[in-house]
Specification:
Blueprint (H helix, E strand, L loop, with lengths): L4 E5 L6 H14 L7 E5 L5 H7 L5 E5 L16 H6 L4 E4 L2 H6 L4 H13 L3 E6 L3 H5 L3 H16 L8 E4 L13 H16 L3 H6 L2 E4 L4 H8 L6 E4 L6 H12 L2
Parallel strand pairs: 1-2, 1-8, 2-3, 3-4, 4-5, 5-6, 6-7, 7-8
Helix pairs in contact: 1-11, 5-7, 7-8, 10-11
The structure holds 2-phosphoglycolic acid.
Amino acid sequence: MRRPIVAGNWKMHGSRADNARLVEELIAGHPDRAAAEFLVLPPFVYLQEVGRLIRDTPIQMGAQNVCAEAQGAFTGEVSAAMLKDVGCGYVLVGHSERRWIYHEDDQLVARKFAAAQSKALVPILCVGEHLWDRENGRTEEVVARQLDVVLELCGVEALNSGIIAYEPIWAIGTGRTATPEQAQAVHAFIRERIAGRDAKIAAATRVLYGGSVKASNAAELFAQPDVDGGLIGGASLNAEEFLAILAACGSR
Ligand code: PGA
């Protein structure tokens, strides 16, 4: 049984005041027994404070990025140990905005995945294709490559404590969601690809969908057999909307 996850990627949004308001509303509206794990991913500078606000609540926290190196002269970077130190349990690696705007390649993403695990953070590996890849029938090729590099470096066992998020780039922040069938097809492909190395690990690995998930489309996405929750951007900044997505995950 895979426990679903609903994760809110705040990206570069928020302020101390906005965060306090949002977290207060999330705590007030969080059901006593949610079927899904519920986590927020604030910008680095707010992690410690958000961590304090969610202490002793069911809400968990992660970061949006991590340095592949353990420590040293890497100006502007934040290590896995530091994230752990301020209360993170999770971290995104290879979000498409990191890959495409900041030119992070598959090898670097795989090293970040390993760095996170070395400090007992759960990495959420983001994979996904551009519109031109999809239109040229290359979705599976792109997703397989992004996944394989991590499996080669870290071994399939790394997925025992890792999560995958399929985020088609053409659906992120565009209001254009993958159809439930499109999402399911790629999620099933990811699971099969992992099963090629280890069927048991494949069956247990959680694969989240991300890309314009909203309260209005979450239930049909989460109803797909291989969709184990969502990575939510814009809609996670609105407590009512984000909690409705959590509720949709619970009723799958
Ligand atoms: P979105 O972002 O929900 O705003 O499309 C998802 C993400 O980038 O994680």
